[in-house]
Amino acid sequence: MTERRRKRDHAHLILDYRPSEPTGWPSPIPSKIGKTIGGHTSSREFTVSGKRYRISLMPFGRHAPDPVYEPVPSDPAVDFRRTLAGKFGAYYSFRYRGGLSGQDELCVQCYSVFAQQSGAAFGAELYVAYHPDERRGDPPARSDLKWIQVARWAGTGGPSPARYVDGGARANPFYLTGGLISVFGTQVFNFDNLIEVQAPPGAGGGAALSVTYVAEAFLARDTGAKDAAGKDVIELSGGIKYGWQLRGVTA
Amino acid sequence: MTAPRTHAGLQISRRSVLRGGALGLSALGAGWTRPAHALSLSRAVAGRPGQTTRPVPCSHLVANYQPSQPTGWGPQGPGTLRNGVGVTLGGHTASISFTFQGTPYQVSLLRFGQPGNSPDPVYEAAPSDPAVSFQSTLEKAYGAYYSFRYTGGFTGENEISVQSYNARAIEPPAGSTMITCGAELYFVYEPDLRAGDPPISEDLQWIQVVNARTADGPARSMVDNPGQANPYYLGALTSIYGRQLCNFFDGPLTTTASRSQITLRIRETFETFLVQDTGIKDAAGKGIINVCGGIKWGWQVQPAHQ
Predict the structure, then answer these.
(1) What is the CA radius of gyration of chain A?
(2) How far apart are alpha carbons A147 and A222 in whole angstroms?
(3) Residue B215 CB neighbours (<10 A)
(4) What percent of chain A has pLDDT over 70?
(5) How far apart are CA B280 and CA A26, in angstroms?
(6) N or C end of chain B: smaller count of CB under 10 Å?
(7) Angle, vertex CA B252, rays to CA B251 and CA B255, nearest 5
(8) Whole-angstrom Cα distance, residue A1 to residue B213?
(9) d(Cα B291, Cα A14) in Å, to the nearest integer?
Protein backbone atom coordinates (compact mmCIF):
# COMPACT_ATOMS: atom_id res chain seq x y z
CA MET A 1 0.00 0.00 0.00
CA THR A 2 1.90 3.02 -1.27
CA GLU A 3 0.42 6.43 -1.55
CA ARG A 4 1.34 10.00 -2.13
CA ARG A 5 -0.56 12.60 -0.26
CA ARG A 6 0.01 15.95 1.32
CA LYS A 7 -1.99 16.90 4.30
CA ARG A 8 -1.60 18.74 7.52
CA ASP A 9 -1.62 16.39 10.45
CA HIS A 10 -1.88 19.33 12.81
CA ALA A 11 -0.09 22.60 13.33
CA HIS A 12 3.48 21.33 13.09
CA LEU A 13 3.61 18.22 10.96
CA ILE A 14 3.00 17.93 7.22
CA LEU A 15 2.55 14.58 5.52
CA ASP A 16 4.08 14.94 2.08
CA TYR A 17 5.12 11.46 1.05
CA ARG A 18 7.38 11.52 -1.97
CA PRO A 19 9.14 9.07 -4.27
CA SER A 20 12.70 8.04 -3.53
CA GLU A 21 14.95 11.09 -3.11
CA PRO A 22 18.57 11.77 -2.08
CA THR A 23 19.10 12.40 1.60
CA GLY A 24 22.60 13.85 1.75
CA TRP A 25 23.60 11.06 4.14
CA PRO A 26 25.74 8.01 3.39
CA SER A 27 24.34 5.16 1.39
CA PRO A 28 24.27 1.56 2.60
CA ILE A 29 25.83 0.87 -0.79
CA PRO A 30 28.79 3.26 -1.00
CA SER A 31 28.91 3.19 -4.79
CA LYS A 32 25.39 4.59 -4.99
CA ILE A 33 23.99 7.88 -3.78
CA GLY A 34 22.02 7.53 -0.56
CA LYS A 35 18.30 7.83 -1.24
CA THR A 36 15.14 7.17 0.68
CA ILE A 37 13.05 4.15 -0.20
CA GLY A 38 10.26 6.68 -0.68
CA GLY A 39 6.53 6.82 -0.17
CA HIS A 40 4.34 5.58 2.62
CA THR A 41 4.09 1.81 2.65
CA SER A 42 2.34 0.91 5.87
CA SER A 43 2.68 -2.90 5.83
CA ARG A 44 4.34 -5.82 4.07
CA GLU A 45 4.13 -9.59 4.45
CA PHE A 46 6.97 -12.01 3.85
CA THR A 47 8.23 -15.44 4.80
CA VAL A 48 11.26 -16.46 6.89
CA SER A 49 12.11 -20.12 7.39
CA GLY A 50 8.63 -21.15 6.32
CA LYS A 51 6.86 -18.79 8.73
CA ARG A 52 4.72 -15.92 7.55
CA TYR A 53 5.30 -12.45 9.01
CA ARG A 54 3.91 -8.95 8.68
CA ILE A 55 5.92 -5.78 9.29
CA SER A 56 3.74 -2.72 9.79
CA LEU A 57 3.96 0.89 10.90
CA MET A 58 2.61 1.73 14.33
CA PRO A 59 -0.68 3.65 14.37
CA PHE A 60 -0.31 4.98 17.94
CA GLY A 61 -4.05 4.91 18.44
CA ARG A 62 -4.84 6.77 15.25
CA HIS A 63 -6.63 5.67 12.14
CA ALA A 64 -3.62 6.13 9.85
CA PRO A 65 -0.11 5.02 10.74
CA ASP A 66 1.68 8.35 10.33
CA PRO A 67 4.34 9.79 12.63
CA VAL A 68 3.02 11.82 15.53
CA TYR A 69 4.16 15.31 16.52
CA GLU A 70 5.12 15.77 20.16
CA PRO A 71 5.93 19.05 21.92
CA VAL A 72 7.79 17.07 24.57
CA PRO A 73 8.75 13.41 24.80
CA SER A 74 5.83 11.47 26.26
CA ASP A 75 6.03 7.79 25.38
CA PRO A 76 6.34 5.84 28.64
CA ALA A 77 7.92 2.84 26.93
CA VAL A 78 10.67 4.93 25.37
CA ASP A 79 11.17 6.96 28.55
CA PHE A 80 13.10 9.59 26.62
CA ARG A 81 14.01 11.98 29.41
CA ARG A 82 15.25 9.42 31.89
CA THR A 83 17.10 7.39 29.27
CA LEU A 84 18.83 10.51 27.96
CA ALA A 85 19.70 11.87 31.39
CA GLY A 86 20.95 8.48 32.51
CA LYS A 87 23.41 8.27 29.63
CA PHE A 88 24.52 11.88 29.22
CA GLY A 89 23.22 13.83 32.21
CA ALA A 90 26.69 14.05 33.73
CA TYR A 91 27.90 16.21 30.84
CA TYR A 92 24.84 17.91 29.37
CA SER A 93 21.89 19.84 30.82
CA PHE A 94 18.74 19.20 28.80
CA ARG A 95 16.15 21.99 28.69
CA TYR A 96 12.73 21.17 27.24
CA ARG A 97 11.20 24.20 25.56
CA GLY A 98 7.73 22.75 25.23
CA GLY A 99 7.57 22.34 21.50
CA LEU A 100 7.91 24.31 18.30
CA SER A 101 6.28 27.72 18.12
CA GLY A 102 5.49 28.07 14.41
CA GLN A 103 3.55 25.97 11.91
CA ASP A 104 4.22 23.19 9.42
CA GLU A 105 7.83 22.75 10.40
CA LEU A 106 8.20 18.98 10.05
CA CYS A 107 7.62 17.62 6.57
CA VAL A 108 7.43 13.82 6.49
CA GLN A 109 8.57 12.70 3.04
CA CYS A 110 9.14 8.98 3.56
CA TYR A 111 7.66 6.63 6.13
CA SER A 112 7.67 3.09 4.85
CA VAL A 113 8.32 -0.50 5.73
CA PHE A 114 9.95 -2.86 3.28
CA ALA A 115 10.60 -6.58 3.00
CA GLN A 116 12.02 -8.97 0.49
CA GLN A 117 9.59 -11.75 -0.26
CA SER A 118 12.37 -14.20 0.49
CA GLY A 119 12.45 -12.75 3.98
CA ALA A 120 16.17 -12.23 3.73
CA ALA A 121 15.80 -8.57 4.67
CA PHE A 122 13.13 -6.31 6.11
CA GLY A 123 12.98 -2.96 7.83
CA ALA A 124 11.66 0.57 7.73
CA GLU A 125 12.65 4.15 7.03
CA LEU A 126 11.59 7.58 8.23
CA TYR A 127 12.76 10.70 6.42
CA VAL A 128 11.71 14.16 7.60
CA ALA A 129 12.69 17.65 6.45
CA TYR A 130 12.64 20.53 8.93
CA HIS A 131 11.47 23.96 7.73
CA PRO A 132 11.66 26.37 10.67
CA ASP A 133 9.10 29.11 11.11
CA GLU A 134 11.74 31.53 12.36
CA ARG A 135 9.44 34.54 12.62
CA ARG A 136 7.52 32.66 15.30
CA GLY A 137 10.62 31.62 17.14
CA ASP A 138 11.50 28.21 15.81
CA PRO A 139 15.21 27.35 16.10
CA PRO A 140 17.01 28.19 12.83
CA ALA A 141 18.33 25.36 10.68
CA ARG A 142 21.99 25.92 11.46
CA SER A 143 24.88 23.65 12.28
CA ASP A 144 24.28 24.00 16.03
CA LEU A 145 20.85 22.42 15.63
CA LYS A 146 20.80 18.64 15.71
CA TRP A 147 18.53 15.73 16.58
CA ILE A 148 18.44 13.52 19.63
CA GLN A 149 16.68 10.19 19.28
CA VAL A 150 15.82 7.71 22.01
CA ALA A 151 14.48 4.35 20.86
CA ARG A 152 13.17 1.16 22.33
CA TRP A 153 13.66 -2.15 20.56
CA ALA A 154 11.64 -4.92 22.17
CA GLY A 155 11.74 -8.49 20.95
CA THR A 156 14.00 -10.53 18.74
CA GLY A 157 17.57 -9.54 18.14
CA GLY A 158 17.56 -6.13 19.67
CA PRO A 159 20.29 -4.21 21.40
CA SER A 160 20.92 -4.24 25.08
CA PRO A 161 19.61 -2.30 26.90
CA ALA A 162 16.33 -2.17 25.01
CA ARG A 163 16.03 1.61 25.53
CA TYR A 164 18.96 3.57 24.18
CA VAL A 165 20.12 6.98 23.05
CA ASP A 166 20.70 6.52 19.34
CA GLY A 167 23.95 8.45 19.20
CA GLY A 168 26.20 6.13 17.29
CA ALA A 169 28.72 5.09 19.96
CA ARG A 170 29.84 8.68 20.36
CA ALA A 171 30.72 10.91 23.29
CA ASN A 172 27.59 13.02 22.69
CA PRO A 173 23.87 12.28 22.41
CA PHE A 174 23.30 13.60 18.89
CA TYR A 175 21.81 11.50 16.15
CA LEU A 176 24.27 11.00 13.30
CA THR A 177 22.25 11.02 10.08
CA GLY A 178 20.28 14.15 10.71
CA GLY A 179 20.86 17.89 10.78
CA LEU A 180 22.16 20.48 8.36
CA ILE A 181 23.47 18.85 5.21
CA SER A 182 23.77 19.57 1.51
CA VAL A 183 21.99 17.73 -1.29
CA PHE A 184 23.47 18.42 -4.70
CA GLY A 185 24.31 22.02 -3.88
CA THR A 186 21.30 22.91 -1.75
CA GLN A 187 21.41 23.01 2.03
CA VAL A 188 18.65 21.10 3.78
CA PHE A 189 17.93 20.22 7.38
CA ASN A 190 16.59 16.71 7.69
CA PHE A 191 16.37 13.46 9.62
CA ASP A 192 16.84 10.00 8.15
CA ASN A 193 16.54 6.67 9.90
CA LEU A 194 16.81 3.59 7.72
CA ILE A 195 16.92 0.27 9.54
CA GLU A 196 17.46 -2.94 7.60
CA VAL A 197 17.36 -6.31 9.32
CA GLN A 198 18.97 -9.32 7.65
CA ALA A 199 17.18 -12.53 8.59
CA PRO A 200 19.15 -15.52 7.34
CA PRO A 201 17.64 -19.02 7.50
CA GLY A 202 17.40 -20.08 11.11
CA ALA A 203 17.06 -16.55 12.43
CA GLY A 204 15.36 -16.58 15.78
CA GLY A 205 16.73 -20.00 16.62
CA GLY A 206 13.45 -21.71 15.82
CA ALA A 207 11.31 -19.28 17.82
CA ALA A 208 8.94 -16.92 16.03
CA LEU A 209 10.41 -13.50 15.26
CA SER A 210 8.78 -10.58 17.03
CA VAL A 211 9.96 -6.96 17.12
CA THR A 212 8.44 -3.72 18.37
CA TYR A 213 10.47 -0.61 17.56
CA VAL A 214 9.37 2.80 18.87
CA ALA A 215 11.47 5.97 18.70
CA GLU A 216 11.14 9.62 19.67
CA ALA A 217 13.35 12.07 17.77
CA PHE A 218 13.63 15.68 18.94
CA LEU A 219 15.26 18.78 17.58
CA ALA A 220 18.08 19.74 19.92
CA ARG A 221 20.18 22.91 19.86
CA ASP A 222 23.67 22.67 21.29
CA THR A 223 23.92 26.16 22.79
CA GLY A 224 27.60 25.87 23.65
CA ALA A 225 26.76 27.59 26.96
CA LYS A 226 27.51 25.98 30.30
CA ASP A 227 25.18 25.88 33.27
CA ALA A 228 26.26 26.52 36.84
CA ALA A 229 27.41 22.93 37.14
CA GLY A 230 29.61 23.22 34.07
CA LYS A 231 27.34 21.14 31.86
CA ASP A 232 26.73 21.99 28.23
CA VAL A 233 23.18 23.31 27.80
CA ILE A 234 21.05 21.64 25.14
CA GLU A 235 17.60 23.00 24.28
CA LEU A 236 15.06 20.49 22.99
CA SER A 237 12.20 21.71 20.84
CA GLY A 238 9.47 19.65 19.22
CA GLY A 239 9.82 16.17 17.88
CA ILE A 240 8.12 13.13 16.45
CA LYS A 241 7.21 9.66 17.56
CA TYR A 242 7.18 6.77 15.13
CA GLY A 243 7.76 3.05 14.99
CA TRP A 244 7.04 -0.31 13.47
CA GLN A 245 6.37 -3.85 14.53
CA LEU A 246 7.00 -7.35 13.23
CA ARG A 247 4.54 -10.10 14.04
CA GLY A 248 3.78 -13.60 12.89
CA VAL A 249 0.73 -14.03 10.68
CA THR A 250 -1.64 -16.84 11.55
CA ALA A 251 -3.55 -18.49 8.73
CA MET B 1 30.34 -2.26 6.15
CA THR B 2 30.10 -5.06 8.65
CA ALA B 3 26.70 -5.70 10.06
CA PRO B 4 26.53 -7.04 13.57
CA ARG B 5 25.04 -10.43 14.17
CA THR B 6 22.84 -10.47 17.21
CA HIS B 7 22.26 -13.39 19.49
CA ALA B 8 19.10 -14.25 17.58
CA GLY B 9 20.86 -14.48 14.25
CA LEU B 10 19.47 -11.23 12.89
CA GLN B 11 21.82 -8.75 11.32
CA ILE B 12 20.78 -5.17 11.81
CA SER B 13 22.30 -2.50 9.65
CA ARG B 14 21.45 1.05 8.92
CA ARG B 15 22.61 4.06 7.05
CA SER B 16 24.77 5.13 9.94
CA VAL B 17 26.87 1.99 10.01
CA LEU B 18 29.90 3.44 8.34
CA ARG B 19 33.55 3.28 7.66
CA GLY B 20 34.12 -0.12 9.13
CA GLY B 21 32.80 0.93 12.48
CA ALA B 22 29.49 0.34 14.12
CA LEU B 23 27.41 3.36 14.81
CA GLY B 24 23.98 3.90 16.13
CA LEU B 25 21.84 0.93 16.85
CA SER B 26 24.35 -1.55 15.61
CA ALA B 27 26.93 -0.40 18.08
CA LEU B 28 24.64 -1.58 20.82
CA GLY B 29 24.44 -5.09 19.54
CA ALA B 30 26.34 -7.25 21.95
CA GLY B 31 29.37 -9.26 21.15
CA TRP B 32 30.22 -8.27 17.60
CA THR B 33 33.30 -6.27 18.29
CA ARG B 34 36.43 -7.90 19.53
CA PRO B 35 39.48 -6.35 21.03
CA ALA B 36 42.38 -5.57 18.77
CA HIS B 37 45.20 -8.03 19.06
CA ALA B 38 48.62 -6.93 18.13
CA LEU B 39 50.33 -9.02 15.53
CA SER B 40 53.52 -10.77 16.40
CA LEU B 41 55.00 -7.53 15.36
CA SER B 42 57.94 -5.34 15.92
CA ARG B 43 57.59 -1.63 15.88
CA ALA B 44 60.39 -0.04 13.95
CA VAL B 45 59.48 3.23 15.62
CA ALA B 46 58.12 2.72 19.08
CA GLY B 47 54.56 3.80 19.58
CA ARG B 48 54.20 6.40 22.26
CA PRO B 49 50.82 6.24 23.90
CA GLY B 50 51.82 9.07 26.18
CA GLN B 51 51.64 12.73 25.34
CA THR B 52 54.30 14.26 23.18
CA THR B 53 54.31 17.69 21.67
CA ARG B 54 56.75 18.46 18.95
CA PRO B 55 56.92 21.48 16.70
CA VAL B 56 56.70 20.73 13.03
CA PRO B 57 58.51 22.99 10.61
CA CYS B 58 55.31 24.55 9.47
CA SER B 59 53.28 27.33 10.99
CA HIS B 60 49.89 25.64 10.67
CA LEU B 61 50.37 22.08 11.92
CA VAL B 62 51.39 20.94 15.40
CA ALA B 63 52.29 17.35 16.20
CA ASN B 64 50.66 17.00 19.60
CA TYR B 65 50.30 13.27 20.06
CA GLN B 66 48.02 12.31 22.94
CA PRO B 67 46.99 9.09 24.66
CA SER B 68 43.80 7.38 23.50
CA GLN B 69 40.85 9.76 23.83
CA PRO B 70 37.19 10.09 22.78
CA THR B 71 36.70 11.61 19.36
CA GLY B 72 33.04 12.56 19.28
CA TRP B 73 32.64 10.07 16.44
CA GLY B 74 32.09 6.36 16.19
CA PRO B 75 34.82 3.73 16.20
CA GLN B 76 37.21 3.27 13.29
CA GLY B 77 37.90 -0.44 13.39
CA PRO B 78 39.27 -2.67 16.15
CA GLY B 79 40.74 -0.95 19.17
CA THR B 80 38.78 2.29 18.77
CA LEU B 81 35.69 1.45 20.81
CA ARG B 82 36.00 1.83 24.58
CA ASN B 83 33.09 1.82 27.01
CA GLY B 84 30.74 2.08 24.06
CA VAL B 85 32.36 5.26 22.71
CA GLY B 86 34.65 5.81 19.75
CA VAL B 87 38.23 6.62 20.77
CA THR B 88 41.58 7.12 19.10
CA LEU B 89 44.39 4.61 19.29
CA GLY B 90 46.53 7.42 20.60
CA GLY B 91 50.18 8.19 20.09
CA HIS B 92 52.30 7.94 16.98
CA THR B 93 53.39 4.59 15.57
CA ALA B 94 55.16 5.19 12.30
CA SER B 95 55.66 1.59 11.16
CA ILE B 96 54.92 -2.02 12.02
CA SER B 97 56.65 -5.12 10.69
CA PHE B 98 54.77 -8.37 10.12
CA THR B 99 55.00 -11.61 8.18
CA PHE B 100 52.42 -12.69 5.63
CA GLN B 101 52.72 -15.99 3.75
CA GLY B 102 56.31 -16.26 4.89
CA THR B 103 57.31 -12.86 3.57
CA PRO B 104 58.29 -10.02 5.90
CA TYR B 105 56.39 -6.80 5.29
CA GLN B 106 56.20 -3.36 6.77
CA VAL B 107 53.18 -1.08 7.01
CA SER B 108 54.34 2.49 7.45
CA LEU B 109 53.19 6.09 7.35
CA LEU B 110 54.18 7.99 4.23
CA ARG B 111 57.08 10.41 4.60
CA PHE B 112 56.35 12.94 1.85
CA GLY B 113 59.98 13.96 1.89
CA GLN B 114 60.29 14.35 5.64
CA PRO B 115 63.61 13.24 7.16
CA GLY B 116 63.80 10.50 9.77
CA ASN B 117 61.53 7.57 10.45
CA SER B 118 58.64 9.25 12.20
CA PRO B 119 56.71 11.25 9.64
CA ASP B 120 53.83 13.54 10.51
CA PRO B 121 51.02 14.66 8.21
CA VAL B 122 51.97 17.58 5.98
CA TYR B 123 50.13 20.89 5.88
CA GLU B 124 48.99 22.16 2.50
CA ALA B 125 47.64 25.58 1.64
CA ALA B 126 46.00 24.06 -1.41
CA PRO B 127 45.76 20.50 -2.72
CA SER B 128 48.93 19.70 -4.62
CA ASP B 129 49.55 15.97 -4.81
CA PRO B 130 49.59 14.97 -8.48
CA ALA B 131 48.56 11.37 -7.78
CA VAL B 132 45.59 12.35 -5.63
CA SER B 133 44.57 15.02 -8.10
CA PHE B 134 42.20 16.55 -5.56
CA GLN B 135 40.80 19.38 -7.62
CA SER B 136 40.04 17.47 -10.78
CA THR B 137 38.69 14.45 -8.90
CA LEU B 138 36.39 16.65 -6.87
CA GLU B 139 35.31 18.66 -9.89
CA LYS B 140 34.54 15.57 -11.88
CA ALA B 141 32.40 14.06 -9.13
CA TYR B 142 30.58 17.15 -7.87
CA GLY B 143 31.35 20.06 -10.18
CA ALA B 144 27.86 19.94 -11.64
CA TYR B 145 26.37 20.93 -8.30
CA TYR B 146 29.08 22.84 -6.43
CA SER B 147 31.51 25.65 -7.17
CA PHE B 148 34.75 25.14 -5.27
CA ARG B 149 36.69 28.27 -4.29
CA TYR B 150 40.24 27.70 -3.08
CA THR B 151 41.13 30.36 -0.52
CA GLY B 152 44.87 29.66 -0.41
CA GLY B 153 45.17 28.20 3.06
CA PHE B 154 44.80 29.23 6.66
CA THR B 155 45.73 32.75 7.71
CA GLY B 156 46.73 32.13 11.32
CA GLU B 157 49.04 29.69 13.08
CA ASN B 158 48.89 26.23 14.61
CA GLU B 159 45.38 25.43 13.41
CA ILE B 160 45.86 21.68 12.95
CA SER B 161 46.68 19.77 16.15
CA VAL B 162 47.53 16.19 15.20
CA GLN B 163 46.82 14.01 18.25
CA SER B 164 46.92 10.44 16.94
CA TYR B 165 48.63 9.13 13.81
CA ASN B 166 49.44 5.46 13.49
CA ALA B 167 50.26 2.68 11.09
CA ARG B 168 48.15 -0.40 11.81
CA ALA B 169 48.37 -4.15 11.25
CA ILE B 170 45.61 -6.27 12.71
CA GLU B 171 45.85 -9.90 13.54
CA PRO B 172 43.26 -12.01 11.72
CA PRO B 173 40.79 -14.19 13.60
CA ALA B 174 41.99 -17.68 14.44
CA GLY B 175 42.02 -19.85 11.35
CA SER B 176 41.80 -16.91 9.00
CA THR B 177 44.42 -16.32 6.35
CA MET B 178 43.73 -12.66 5.84
CA ILE B 179 45.79 -9.64 6.82
CA THR B 180 44.34 -6.24 7.59
CA CYS B 181 46.54 -3.15 7.39
CA GLY B 182 46.00 0.56 7.39
CA ALA B 183 46.38 3.71 9.41
CA GLU B 184 44.58 5.92 11.87
CA LEU B 185 44.53 9.71 12.04
CA TYR B 186 42.90 12.10 14.48
CA PHE B 187 43.40 15.84 14.60
CA VAL B 188 41.59 18.87 15.96
CA TYR B 189 41.03 22.15 14.14
CA GLU B 190 41.86 25.10 16.41
CA PRO B 191 41.24 28.31 14.48
CA ASP B 192 43.36 31.39 14.94
CA LEU B 193 40.36 33.72 14.96
CA ARG B 194 42.31 36.95 15.27
CA ALA B 195 44.18 36.06 12.12
CA GLY B 196 41.00 35.36 10.22
CA ASP B 197 40.67 31.59 10.24
CA PRO B 198 37.06 30.34 9.86
CA PRO B 199 35.44 29.89 13.29
CA ILE B 200 34.01 26.53 14.22
CA SER B 201 30.59 28.06 14.70
CA GLU B 202 30.17 28.24 10.93
CA ASP B 203 29.12 25.34 8.77
CA LEU B 204 32.47 23.65 8.44
CA GLN B 205 32.98 20.31 6.77
CA TRP B 206 35.90 18.22 5.54
CA ILE B 207 36.46 17.06 2.00
CA GLN B 208 38.89 14.18 1.58
CA VAL B 209 40.15 12.73 -1.67
CA VAL B 210 42.08 9.48 -1.59
CA ASN B 211 44.38 7.87 -4.12
CA ALA B 212 44.44 4.13 -3.47
CA ARG B 213 46.72 1.52 -4.99
CA THR B 214 46.14 -2.08 -4.02
CA ALA B 215 47.68 -5.40 -4.93
CA ASP B 216 44.79 -6.12 -7.26
CA GLY B 217 44.56 -3.14 -9.54
CA PRO B 218 45.75 0.24 -10.71
CA ALA B 219 45.70 3.29 -8.50
CA ARG B 220 42.66 5.51 -8.66
CA SER B 221 41.43 8.61 -6.89
CA MET B 222 37.99 9.19 -5.43
CA VAL B 223 36.14 11.53 -3.12
CA ASP B 224 36.02 9.78 0.24
CA ASN B 225 32.32 9.89 1.02
CA PRO B 226 30.18 6.77 1.08
CA GLY B 227 27.55 7.51 -1.49
CA GLN B 228 26.44 10.96 -0.40
CA ALA B 229 24.70 13.65 -2.40
CA ASN B 230 27.50 16.01 -1.32
CA PRO B 231 31.30 15.74 -1.23
CA TYR B 232 31.67 15.88 2.55
CA TYR B 233 33.51 13.46 4.73
CA LEU B 234 31.09 12.63 7.53
CA GLY B 235 32.39 14.44 10.55
CA ALA B 236 33.60 17.91 11.45
CA LEU B 237 31.59 19.70 14.11
CA THR B 238 30.93 17.53 17.13
CA SER B 239 30.73 17.51 20.89
CA ILE B 240 32.78 15.50 23.37
CA TYR B 241 31.14 15.23 26.77
CA GLY B 242 29.83 18.76 26.60
CA ARG B 243 32.71 20.42 24.74
CA GLN B 244 32.12 21.62 21.19
CA LEU B 245 34.93 21.23 18.70
CA CYS B 246 35.79 20.63 15.06
CA ASN B 247 37.91 17.58 14.42
CA PHE B 248 38.70 14.78 11.98
CA PHE B 249 38.94 11.04 12.58
CA ASP B 250 39.67 8.36 10.00
CA GLY B 251 40.91 4.81 10.13
CA PRO B 252 41.31 3.31 6.67
CA LEU B 253 41.84 -0.45 6.70
CA THR B 254 42.44 -2.83 3.81
CA THR B 255 42.05 -6.59 4.13
CA THR B 256 43.89 -8.95 1.81
CA ALA B 257 43.17 -12.67 1.60
CA SER B 258 46.00 -15.13 1.40
CA ARG B 259 46.60 -16.70 -1.99
CA SER B 260 49.50 -17.82 -4.09
CA GLN B 261 51.63 -15.46 -6.11
CA ILE B 262 50.58 -12.36 -4.24
CA THR B 263 52.89 -9.63 -3.06
CA LEU B 264 51.41 -6.96 -0.85
CA ARG B 265 51.92 -3.52 -2.31
CA ILE B 266 49.33 -1.11 -1.03
CA ARG B 267 49.56 2.66 -0.89
CA GLU B 268 46.88 5.14 0.08
CA THR B 269 47.46 8.89 -0.07
CA PHE B 270 44.91 11.32 1.32
CA GLU B 271 44.38 15.04 1.00
CA THR B 272 41.95 16.34 3.60
CA PHE B 273 40.73 19.92 3.48
CA LEU B 274 38.59 22.06 5.72
CA VAL B 275 35.74 23.62 3.76
CA GLN B 276 32.92 26.05 4.40
CA ASP B 277 29.52 25.35 2.92
CA THR B 278 28.45 28.94 2.38
CA GLY B 279 24.82 28.11 1.63
CA ILE B 280 25.12 30.57 -1.25
CA LYS B 281 24.61 29.75 -4.93
CA ASP B 282 26.67 31.16 -7.75
CA ALA B 283 25.24 32.54 -10.98
CA ALA B 284 25.01 29.01 -12.38
CA GLY B 285 22.97 27.84 -9.40
CA LYS B 286 25.80 25.84 -7.86
CA GLY B 287 26.41 25.78 -4.11
CA ILE B 288 29.57 27.72 -3.26
CA ILE B 289 32.11 25.88 -1.12
CA ASN B 290 35.22 27.62 0.17
CA VAL B 291 38.18 25.24 0.42
CA CYS B 292 40.54 26.36 3.19
CA GLY B 293 43.76 24.72 4.39
CA GLY B 294 44.33 21.02 4.75
CA ILE B 295 46.77 18.20 5.18
CA LYS B 296 48.28 15.33 3.25
CA TRP B 297 48.75 11.97 4.92
CA GLY B 298 48.89 8.31 4.04
CA TRP B 299 50.25 4.82 4.55
CA GLN B 300 51.75 1.97 2.58
CA VAL B 301 52.55 -1.74 2.79
CA GLN B 302 55.54 -3.18 1.01
CA PRO B 303 58.02 -6.02 1.44
CA ALA B 304 60.34 -5.24 4.32
CA HIS B 305 63.51 -5.39 2.27
CA GLN B 306 62.44 -2.44 0.11
Answers:
(1) 18
(2) 10
(3) 13
(4) 95
(5) 23
(6) C
(7) 130
(8) 47
(9) 37
Average pLDDT value for residue range B37-46: 34
Q: What is the CA radius of gyration of chain B?
A: 19
Coil, strand or helix at A26: coil
Q: Going by DSSP bridges, is the β-strand pair A106-115/A211-226 parallel, antiparallel, or unpaired?
A: unpaired
- Backbone phi, then psi, for A88, in 5-degree steps? -125, 5
**Nearest-CB residue to B145 (from A34, A153, A185):** A185
Cβ contact A220:A235 at 8 Å: yes
**Residue A53 CB contacts under 8 Å (≥ 6 apart), including other chains:** A45, A46, A47, A115, A119, A122, A209, A246, A247, A248, A249
Q: Which residue in B73, B228, B230 is closest to A170 by CB distance?
A: B73
User: B52 vs chain A: nearest CA distance in angstroms?
Assistant: 24
Compute the nearest-CA separation of A35 from chain B (Å).
Answer: 9
Indicate the range of A5-19, A37-51, A55-69 predicted with least confidence. A5-19
Rounded-to-integer distance, Cα B210 and Cα B233, Å: 11
Chain A residues within 8 A of B285 when measuring between CB atoms: 185
pLDDT per position as a tens digit, B54-103: 555 558 999 999 999 999 999 988 889 999 999 999 999 999 999 888 88
**Distance, CA of B24 to CA of B75 (rounded, Å):** 11
| Residue A159 and residue B30 in contact, taking contact as beta carbons nearer than 8 Å | yes
Residue B28 CA: distances (Å) to CA of A150, A207, B22, B128, B136: 13, 22, 8, 41, 40
CA-based nearest residue in chain B for residue A234: B242
| Residue spans per domain, chain B | 1-32, 43-303
State the pairing for strand pair A92-96/A232-248.
parallel
Q: In chain B, which residues have their Cβ closer than 8 Å to the Cβ of A22?
A: 229
Question: How many angstroms separate the CA atoms of B295 and B270, rounded?
Answer: 8
- Could you say which of A90, A168, A224 has the minimum Cβ distance to residue B244? A224
Distance, in angstroms, between B117 CA and closest chain A CA? 33
Nearest-neighbour CA in chain B from A172: distance (Å): 6
Which amino acid belongs to residue A166?
Answer: D
- How far apart (Å, rounded) are the C-alpha atoms in residues A175 and A158? 18
Q: Kindly report the pTM of this predicted structure.
A: 0.89
Question: Chains A, B: CB contacts under 8 A, how many?
Answer: 201
CA gap A211, A209 in Å, rounded: 7
